[in-house]
Amino acid sequence: MRRFEFIRANSVRDAVTAHSQGTGTVFLAGGTTLLDLMKLDVMRPARLVDIHKLGLDRIDVLDDGRVRVGAMVTNTELARHEHIRRAYPVLSQALLSGASTQLRNKATTAGNLMQRVRCGYFRDGVSACNKREPGSGCAATNGQNRNVHAVLGGSDQCIAAHPSDMCVAMAAIGATVHAQGPIGARDIDFLDLHLLPGDKPWKEHALHDSEMITHVTLDAPLAHGRSAYLKLRDRASYQFALASSAAILVLEDGTIREARLALGGVATKPWRALNAEAALKGQSASADTFRRAAAIAFEDARSFGQNGFKTALGQQAIVRNLSSLVA
C-alpha cells in the first residue's frame, strides 16, 4: 500500500490551490478509474483532493436552450434526467450503454471526460507504454490490439482507443468545457479537450497544470433533430465498444439538412467525423448516401493487424445508426 495525503476541498478555489501546491496531486471525483489504477500501481498520486462538496452536482437548462452540467453530476443522474432524455436522447443512450449500474451511480461527468485508456499494456505496469512511461515505446502496435485499440487518430507512439461512450455523444452534440485554474477560469471547445497522441501520447488533454473541470455546457439541440447512439461490442453489457456511433440528423422531405456524426471505439479520442457530415448534408436519406459517408469517415483508417476489422465494423455502426434514424 502506498501512502498518500487526502484533502477534502470546501470550494473550487481551495481545490485548485491544494492541487497546485505539489507534484503528484490528483482530483478525486467518483474514483471509478483512479482507484482501479491506484490498485494496479499504475497511478501513484502523492495527494488526493476530494471535490465532492463543491456544489458541482447540478443540471441546469439555460434560457437559450443549452444545458449546463456540473462536474460531479453522476452518469446515472445525467442519463435519467427528463430534459436530457427528451432533448438529447443520444447522450442518455450513450451513458446507459456504458459500464454497470453501480459504476454509473458513482462515475461523474468530469471523471468520464478525464478517464484513462483501457489498453492492457498501459494497465499491466510492465510493458512498453508511452502513456505510462514516456519514451518506452508502444507494445500494442505489434501486440494484442484487437479490442481497445484505434484505427483513427493513432501514431507509432500510441494506438489506445478512447474508452468513453458519453464523450462520443457530447462530440456529436457540441459542448464547451469550463475549467478553473490558478490564473482563473477558461472555456475549452469540447473537440479540443482530448489530444491526439502524436509523438507525446502522455499528454492526453488540453487542461493546464492544476486546472479543474467545473462544468460542461451542451450546445442547444438542433431544431427538429433526431438522434441515437449505437454501440457494437463482443457482449451486450459491461463491455467497451469495438465501434460506436453517435448520430444526429435533421431531415426535410427526405433530404438531410443537418448532420452530426461522432465515433467511438475506433479512435484515440472522441472522433467527430466532419468529412462524413459534409458528405451527408444536402443528400437524400438513403442507404447509398449512408454507405458513401461511412466510407469517407474511414478514409484515413490505419490497421495495426488484429484491429483491422474495425474499419468495416465502424462503417457498419454508421450505416446502421443512420438507417434507424430515418426508418
TrEMBL record:
What keywords is this UniProt entry annotated with? FAD, Flavoprotein, Oxidoreductase
**FAD-binding PCMH-type domain location, by residue?**
1-223
Enzyme Commission number(s) of this protein: 1.2.99.6
Q: Which SMART domains does the annotation name?
A: CO_deh_flav_C
Note the InterPro entries from the entry: CO_DH_flav_C, CO_DH_flav_C_dom_sf, Diverse_Substr_Oxidored, FAD-bd_PCMH, FAD-bd_PCMH-like_sf, FAD-bd_PCMH_sub1, FAD-bd_PCMH_sub2, Mopterin_DH_FAD-bd
| Molecular-function GO terms, alphabetical | carboxylate reductase activity
- The name on file for this protein is Aldehyde oxidoreductase FAD-binding subunit PaoB
Which source organism does the UniProt entry give?
Answer: Paraburkholderia nemoris
Give the lineage: Bacteria, Pseudomonadati, Pseudomonadota, Betaproteobacteria, Burkholderiales
Give the gene name.
paoB_2
